[in-house]
Amino acid sequence: MKQKNEICDEVMTIFVSLYIFRVHKNQVPRFVKLIEEVKLLFVSYDARPFLFEEDVLTGKQGSMGLLNLFDLKDDEVVYLGKIEFDSKAHYEETMKKLEQNEFKNRYYERFREVVDFSSLITSTFQDAEAEV
């Protein structure tokens, strides 16, 4: 059951894929350029990609921040990638198409050159209010 979004009066369900990238400062220009290319690819599958650069990584008002979860090196910058999909099925379909596309061959190795995958954090979230 889809929930009506009170702000825009649209009926929508959102499935989100999140990525926390730790990028060496020297690699930031290459990383941002690569993300720009990948974003276009996701948009071609009707997904909505976003990239955010770190601002405040410490917690506020007694809460934990990202720096409580991992040790950030002095020469690293943190980016948050978010890709919105219409549903989990849309996400799965898009990822399957990307596997068939040359995404993995074309971008995977380039990503590995600028991002340490052992420090990459990825997770997916589904709309908690869609079934309410």
Describe the structure.
With 132 residues, this protein is of the alpha+beta class. Helix content is 31%, strand content 27%. It has helices spanning 28-43, 88-100, 103-114, and strands at residues 3-4, 11-12, 15-24, 48-53, 76-85, 121-126. The strands form two sheets. It has a four-stranded antiparallel beta sheet. Strands 1-2 form a two-stranded antiparallel sheet. Helix 1 runs antiparallel to helix 3. The radius of gyration is 17 Å and the shape is flat. The N and C termini lie close together (8 Å). The relative contact order is 0.28.
Beta-sheet strand percentage?
A: 25-35%
Count of individual helical segments? 3
Rg of Cα set: 17 Å
Mean pLDDT: 87
Number of strands: 6
Order of helices and strands: EEEHEEHHE
Rough shape?
Answer: flat
Structural class: alpha+beta
The neighbouring-strand order within the major sheet is 4-5-3-6
The largest sheet is: 4 strands, antiparallel
Percent in helix:
25-40%
- Given as residue ranges, the uncertain stretches (5+ residues, pLDDT < 50) are 1-5
Distance between the termini: 8 Å
Summarize the structure.
The chain has 132 residues and is of the alpha+beta class.
List the helices and strands and how they pair.
Blueprint: E1 3-4, E2 11-12, E3 15-24, H1 28-43, E4 48-53, E5 76-85, H2 88-100, H3 103-114, E6 121-126
Antiparallel strand pairs: 1-2, 3-5, 3-6, 4-5
